[in-house]
Specification:
With 200 residues, the protein is an all-alpha fold. The chain has 8 helices and no strands.
Length: 200
């Protein structure tokens, strides 16, 4: 499993480098959809029982919604406090991610949130946790999730990935199911990109 996990992280680094630094497939949202699909397929191929970790339940759905709101509020507060330092990085991401109708973006965000959580928490973190221990697995997966954003050279984005990745990883560690982190990821991305963009 170690080779497969290392291969998955290397694959995600390649894909995220292409995501932010090329014009493949015409626009950001097409690249994101295609690349997350590759990571999702990689997860399912290498860990057939990963889908079983969804296990939706009313408590996990509620935890996902409220945690997504809390995470957004933390980012909103941080953006407003540190706007002079982070506004440029945030604007670069928003500019890159423009160019598609909001309803389409909203649908893509649901799909990609599911795919990213299955890959990063259900496959990478879970696999690392089995070999390194659950807490070390969380830390290692969170660092990897943040470091794949290094090729963007966008410090606020790298830090955002570190914070959000750690938050969703902790949810997965706590609940032992993917539903809370998936729902939290969906709520957060919908707010950040569609409903209430930072600095908007």
């Amino acid at each position: 499993m170690g080779v497969r996990v290392a291969g998955g992280i290397a694959l995600s680094l390649i894909l995220w480098t292409l995501l932010f630094n090329t014009t493949l497939l015409g626009n950001f949202w097409a690249r994101l959809t295609a690349f997350v699909s590759i990571l999702l397929a990689y997860s399912i191929y290498n860990c057939r029982d990963v889908v079983r970790r969804l296990r939706p339940s009313p408590p996990d759905l509620l935890i996902g919604v409220f945690s997504g709101l809390i995470l957004y509020l933390l980012f909103w507060a941080g953006y407003n406090i540190l706007s002079d330092l982070v506004s440029g990085g945030a604007s670069a991401v928003y500019e890159l991610a423009s160019g598609a109708p909001l309803p389409l973006i909203s649908l893509i965000l649901v799909y990609t949130s599911v795919g990213e959580e299955v890959f990063w928490r259900g496959f990478i973190q879970d696999s690392l946790g089995k070999g390194l221990g659950r807490v070390n697995g969380l830390i290692s997966a969170t660092l990897a999730y943040s470091l794949i954003h290094l090729p963007t050279l966008n410090t606020p984005l790298i830090l955002a990935a570190l914070i959000a990745g750690g938050f969703w990883g902790a949810l997965y560690l706590w609940r032992g199911a993917l539903t809370p982190s998936i729902v939290s990821h969906i709520v957060w991305t919908e707010l950040v990109f569609v409903l209430a963009p930072l600095g908007g």
